[in-house]
Amino acid sequence: xxxxxxxxxxxxxxxxxxxxxxxxxxxxxxxxxxxxxxxxxxxxxxxxxxxxxxxxxxxxxxxxxxxxxxxxxxxxxxxxxxxxxxxxxxxxxxxxxxxxxxxxxxxxxxxxxxxxxxxxxxxxxxxxxxxxxxxxxxxxxxxxxxxxxxxxxxxxxxxxxxxxxxxxxxxxxxxxxxxxxxxxxxxxxxxxxxxxxxxxxxxxxxxxxxxxxxxxxxxxxxxxxxxxxxxxxxxxxxxxxxxxxxxxxxxxxxxxxxxxxxxxxxxxxxxxxxxxxxxxxxxxxxxxxxxxxxxxxxxxxxxxxxxxxxxxxxxxxxxxxxxxxxxxxxxxxxxxxxxxxxxxxxxxxxxxxxxxxxxxxxxxxxxxxxxxxxxxxxxxxxxxxxxxxxxxxxxxxxxxxxxxxxxxxxxxxxxxxxxxxxxxxxxxxxxxxxxxxxxxxxxxxx
Length: 446
Known about the structure:
Elements: E1 10-12, E2 23-25, H1 71-91, H2 97-121, H3 175-178, H4 184-190, H5 221-229, E3 231-236, E4 240-247, E5 254-258, E6 265-269, H6 273-277, H7 286-293, E7 299-303, H8 304-310, H9 326-340, H10 346-356, E8 424-425, E9 443-444
Helix pairs in contact: 1-2, 4-9
């Protein structure tokens, strides 16, 4: 018998435990059961020895090994011994990096080799037990083993041959889907974004003349805000704040307020009136603009210097120096714009988004209702009448040397003229003839 599983015709012992119980293999099938050496013409010659048991065409039985000699156990042993040493090597200071990298690569190669050896040994043996096939001459129905010692495995479909559908890409949620309702960031997404535009030039008078008592509590909006924000305050009556202290949100410092004195407090419109004008307010009626200018949501007592530094800038052009107020500052602006239907410019929207990136859960302040008074826009003031032009001075006439009420007397020399007299122009003032025009410019007694 050869190593590839084929056997030449001859006598063999199918059972290794009974090496002297020989049966004849004709190259295609075993002789029927019960056939012996004595009753067949194929009996071996006297003195012929049967093939050794290891050549018998039977399936080899693999010897079981102890679990502690298996490849997984060996890999765990190496891991427990080698890996701690590798970690300690990397923790060691002063060792050259090339040594650490080389040792690490060596360990990786070792584990790859162990894994490859284990996988190759686990492959099934090519030799398989002969398949019993019945023979035409067999008197018994007992099948005989097939002489083929190699099993041809039916190829199974590989992963590459299978038709695996490609999963559809998961759609990325839009920013509005990931934002929490009730936050300033979600409200910002809902605002319209477009460039500035206005129907006419901005004028402060379009938003009313001074502060108004929009809530009908007897106090104008300015004093309402001072009462709301100042502490340690002194009052004159129930509305007028004469002094007090403010914790300024723009600078984070404490500021003293004094009415009529060296006050350092202004009432700021967080969304400046002129900035509102070019982002939608120019289309409002007068009552809505007055309500906007007096809305407490848009008002804040702040440091006067910072308020004037801000001017009419939006969030893309100016932010308070006190960074802790940035999120609330932008949220208030978004709330007032949403309340009155103002839009934001592209630069302003981007700046607000950057600020809220540090505080995505900043709540949107409660906007409340628009309190528009029943107030009419005053008629535009009539242009002032032009002042009448002064009548031309009557021309003086007199002969040389004469004097009258309209002609100055002849003082003889310009240096003798009293204050308020002269100069005299040739052809206009008769006094010109009284004096010498030394420089010939037509004017004397300059």
